[in-house]
Amino acid sequence: MRVGGEVLAIDPYFTRIPFRKMWVGRVQSDRQLVAEKMRRCDWVLVTHAHFDHLLDVPEVARQTGATVCGSYNTCRLLTALGVPQRQLREIRMGDQFTLGGFQITALEADHIPTPGFTAGPLPRNLYPPLRARDYRMDGHFCFLVQVEGYRLLTDTGRCVTSAVPADVWFANLLKRARLYPPLLQRVQPRLIVPIHWDNMWRSLSRPVRPLFTPPHRTLRLLPRANLRQWTRMIERMAPDAQVLLPEVFQSYTLERLLEPAEEGGLR
Questions:
Q1: What is the reported pLDDT for 214?
Q2: What is the pTM of this model?
Q3: Minimal CB count within 10 Å: which of 41, 51, 78, 222?
Q4: C-alpha–C-alpha distance, residues 84 and 33, integer Å
Q5: Helix 227-237 to helix 180-187 angle, to the nearest 10 degrees?
Q6: Are residues 41 and 138 in the same domain?
């Protein structure tokens, strides 16, 4: 997010490690790619400490001088990876704080069950480069970001009580369909942006492809995320909201996106 000359990033992840690296070997950030894609950053918010949310954050901090805000595990991992303490800010659920022109509230979220990556304490000895499984989460934040009169909310998981009113909701489409009505009722978003739907082991230099999704007690094994079906479902549940599937590395202006449809906004 950019306001004037200030840049706020949430969970920046560019490196896209191959799937086998989740279980075998060590993982490292692609420094050149980070330098190319994140030339300016003032602050980083980290929702949780899994590798696909944190792997590139140390390099972003080193190259830009950004301050990183995250949980205890997040700060410990970043310290082990060489980020100076002066660039770290440990936060807790319910914290409210200001970063330049951004007002932040840290709310509770949860994570879908992920075998081998459940929440828990970090390994005692953290020697970089780390293994993907060393990036163990503790708390999982949902962030409400208020800026220039707009309210943007990251995904809450199944935590309905953390779903607060917002103009823009970044929604994880791996949730079960029954979870959306109560969340949409509370958020009442004008714009919904699906997240975590693409294949995160596929290089960003290649065309984006949907992620395989959890089967949710069905006989189908690892179906791919179906964006069209998800969008139709959301449009039925929230007919007054717009759905945006952003292009990779494309910039968007909130004021234009949130224009009424009859004035040229998205639909």
A1: 54
A2: 0.92
A3: 222
A4: 22
A5: 60
A6: yes
